[in-house]
Input
Amino acid sequence: MFSRELTVSDLERLDRIATAAVEALQMDEDTFRAFYDRTARQVWAYLARITGDRSLADDLLQESYYRFLRAERAFASESHRRNYLFRIATNLAHDRHRRGRGVINVPVPDENAPGALADGRDLAAETAQRTDLARAMATLKPREREMLWLAYAQGSSHEEIAESLGLRKSSIKILLFRARRRLAAALGGQS
Amino acid sequence: MNPRGAPAPLDIECPRESDVLDALASSRWPHRVDAELSNHVASCAICRDVITVAAAIQADHDDAWREANVPSSGQMWWRAEMRARQDAIRHAARPVNVAQGVAAVFALALAGVAAWFAWPSLHSLFSAIAPGGDAQTTTFASPLFIPIAIAMGAFLVLAPVAIYFVMSEK
Output
């Protein structure tokens, strides 16, 4: 295809466009940084556990925040904002799952991870417990994993789960019950 | 709900779930809860599932929290800003790329049409200059030869100029 040299007016025009794009981001820098510091580890943990892949969680974390910043939406509260972020993260994880990279792995606990077992807990017991949970989670549907994580790791209410997953609030109770029963059975608990 | 406080077999939630989760979250479960709650959990399938699942997930959440090695907020903001700029510029350049494509297709089509019209004259010209060609029988006197030659010359000069203007701002 043809190409041409950029003129000074081209560069000025592109700079104006780029500046406008940055100004159109959802938040200013300070607000974003505060929000990110409050939520990033939660989102990473969620992504790492629903996908079973830490490096994928790293990628999806960045993509989630970028899409969140580009979203042209107003939020009534911090909770809505957070739920919307989780919804973006969930949708991205689903996209990856559909494209075949989302086959959940059973993550091997990383002994060198910062803080891992620093308090002297029993490594073998911890590893076995985590592996059991990862294996049990891998038997669930993605939607079930997400729901259980939001409910019991994040402590989200049914309304927040519905908002984060794009489901009707009225269906959360039964779906959560089924997912919990399946996971408990997979973990060897009573169901 | 049956008389002992446990839900009937078809119930999907138990009113004591929140008590169980509170006990778990505050590390009171299983040793520092009152006997009444312990007895309830022992008789309630839903609460037993809640304990099994929530205890495992909360422990895993604590591990994941320690594992999480996320970029700093400053890095994340900088990357988002750079990407927003690049996306905006790419988006702005899209109509220019479309115009370039249209111009190229148009120029090629025009060249094809011109070549088709000029072919008889060009054929005569090639015959005349080819070794062994019969220059005497070659006719440059075709009534279309001169206008076509002028049109092709003009096209070769003007097409790049036209393409430049199509690609230019405005």
User: Anything to note?
Assistant: The helical segments of chain B are 17-25, 35-43, 45-67, 73-129, 145-167. Chain B has two domains: 17-67, 93-167. Chain B touches chain A through 52 residues (CB under 8 Å).
